[in-house]
Amino acid sequence: xxxxxxxxxxxxxxxxxxxxxxxxxxxxxxxxxxxxxxxxxxxxxxxxxxxxxxxxxxxxxxxxxxxxxxxxxxxxxxxxxxxxxxxxxxxxxxxxxxxxxxxxxxxxxxxxxxxxxxxxxxxxxxxxxxxxxxxxxxxxxxxxxxxxxxxxxxxxxxxxxxxxxxxxxxxxxxxxxxxxxxxxxxxxxxxxxxxxxxxxxxxxxxxxxxxxxxxxxxxxxxxxxxxxxxxxxxxxxxxxxxxxxxxxxxxxxxxxxxxxxxxxxxxxxxxxxxxxxxxxxxxxxx
Length: 286
Fold this sequence. Notes:
Strand order of the largest sheet: 1-8-7-6-5-2-3-4
Distance between the termini: 10 Å
Mean pLDDT: 88
CATH architecture: 3-Layer(aba) Sandwich
Largest sheet: 8 strands, parallel
CATH topology: Rossmann fold
Structural class: alpha/beta
Low-confidence stretches: 1-19, 277-282
CATH class: Alpha Beta
Order of helices and strands: EEHEHEHEHEHEHHE
């Protein structure tokens, strides 16, 4: 397999081309080894739809036991049934609306996972909402708070609650979904951009604090625009078929959550541009 890393910055906007903090490019076509996730317990937020649902299905297909978190039990239940029908391990369902969740709610999740598994091998923070789309002058404070609750505070509280479980695992990965607006300012989406800018810094601080633990890593991944409800609401004039489907980009998530990325931490990743996608196997461009 070609070298998994390309530390160059190719095909990215100038605002993201920072020599001290480059974006590393991943191939969406990466396929993990068979049973790469067998025996691994991985929690996924925002699992009921979009990218979270696609990644969850793929993780289960490669042997992972999943803890599925989302605001609606109906969508989690249907995902549970899909996984079981595909002969995957029975997932754990946790319906929780992050907009109103408290610290004790997250601590309870950590305690329940400790009682059932004693460890956590992966945590994907994928839950996110767009919130109000308009100028800061008119931004409703309650809408700002809601975006911060779901996109930022939930990631802090759940990571904090699960850190003892992650430290126990022999090879654990914490992965944050981010977006280009974390680095490139975009008018009329203030809370969304601010939340993900904070997520990227939170990830780096975690990686710095935990650098003495080689079994634990933290990274962020920007999947770009994908056919999800947020993308469709921002670009209502374009059909969903204009964007890549979530299933088309899950390979990058599997690489960062899986064992082959075990030495990577504190980094931000993006997808290689379509013109560079030549291999079905290379995790990243050579």
